[in-house]
Please model this.
Amino acid sequence: QVQLVESGGGLVQIGGALRLSCEPSRDIRSLYFMAWFRQIPGKPRELVASISSGQNIYYADSLKGRFTISRDNAKNTLYLQMNSLKPEDTAVYYCHGRLTQFGDGFWGQGTQVTVAS
Model:
């Protein structure tokens, strides 16, 4: 079992920036795969960005150039830097991790991001 604790959400103006953090309850280097998802009320949870232990990075096409995922092994933390925020980025953002490529996944509790117009 892995606990994931997110932080960094909040209210921001259009065009602003936020950085989300996710700290796992075990060494982040033991997690094969980590990702950020988001969910807008009434819609399915969608993948925002992911990073594997081999540093392979994926971004949703619509977010490329604005969002950056990174992991800092020394701080045992996963980050999501979000720039040029838009109202449509308003959602609950979830941290996700897996110990192996096809293993069960773990979820954080979610952090609310609200972009005010």
In short: The chain has a mean pLDDT of 94. The radius of gyration is 13 Å.
